[in-house]
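anyone seen this seq b4? input:
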Amino acid sequence: MRLSQKGWNNVLIFACLFMIILFNYTSNMFATNSEKMAVEPLVQNSKLVQAIDFSGIEIQRLGASWRVLSKIPTATISNPEEYVETWVQQPLEQIESVPLVLDSAVSLPVVVWLAGNEEGLIFEFVIDHQEQSVYVQNKMTGNWYALKYSMLPQFIPRELLDA
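predicted toks r here
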């Protein structure tokens, strides 16, 4: 096959364009994680929360309002519905593997009771105040989620975090 100089120039241009597109596509494929991690709230929005038991403080639904039962005498929660909204609406990023935490980390179990379920959803908050890291494990599914340390008081009453 005999091509003129212009013909070979066009072949080289198209070959270079093809290589650029190929390298760009493969770098995007390798740079992004092939398994996208789920970003979802801890409790599905479609479920009706009946109660949240924080192991010492419990928020219970009473009709359209909420009441707080506390074993801690100094606990004062003025807006319990804000905790429920956070649990239902705040998305958390799921992480692939079990996180590595220091021995200084404390564990806090939380049970969320949903309407129509006989068993509550059990979550374990693993809180490391030194490293300022928080991980949440859904005990039913085994999934782990990362939570920003600054957002922890929106999920768990401060009275339990200070204890």
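The helical segments are 5-31, 80-89, 152-155, 158-162. The chain has a mean pLDDT of 85. kinda curious what u guys think
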